Amino acid sequence: MQIRTAARSDLSSLVAIYNQAVEAGQRTADIDPVTVEERQPWFEAHSPDKYPLLVAERDGKVLGYATLSPYRPGRRAMRFTAEISYYVDFASHRQGIASRLVQHALDLCPALRIKTVFAIILDTNTASIRLLQTFGFRQWGHLPRVADFDGVEVGHVYYGLRIGGTEEER
């Protein structure tokens, strides 16, 4: 498996992987599948030199992806903070792909001048919470019952990590 910067030709695969999470429910706050056309601005907002969009690929097949995105875009005091997101094709779960993607993204942070990384996830996504914890992320915030999935209310949690920070800073 290799991890590389996403190419425009990957977009349909990225959308298909994301829509698996949408359709499964409570993996993302989106409740309706997205289209390739709708995701083009999202794709364009990422660049390898500041906010990369990474794909994990094996034998020409995209298995998953991770992004670093601006946190509170346009607010200069937040310019050294990024949000990390990651999704893996359901057929490729439990193969260490998300771990490799997260590690790769975190390894890029010093060169990108990113000092703090957040993951903002639904509090029911226990697999993702466990993954983040293995990388030293800690829960920094919880917004209870802010997402409604046809009457099922779940919270949003903020998991944060200081890049190169001491144990106390995390």
UniProtKB/TrEMBL annotation:
Q: Name one GO molecular function term.
A: acyltransferase activity, transferring groups other than amino-acyl groups
Record's CDD domains? NAT_SF
UniProt-listed SUPFAM superfamilies: Acyl-CoA N-acyltransferases (Nat)
InterPro entries reported for this sequence = Acyl_CoA_acyltransferase (IPR016181), GNAT_dom (IPR000182)
Which superkingdom?
Answer: Bacteria
Give every N-acetyltransferase domain span: 1-164
Q: Which Gene3D superfamilies match?
A: 3.40.630.30
Is the keyword Membrane assigned to this protein? no
Annotated coiled-coil segments of the chain:
none
Q: Which UniProt keywords apply?
A: Acyltransferase, Transferase
Give TM regions: none
Q: What is this protein called?
A: GNAT family N-acetyltransferase
Origin organism is candidate division KSB3 bacterium
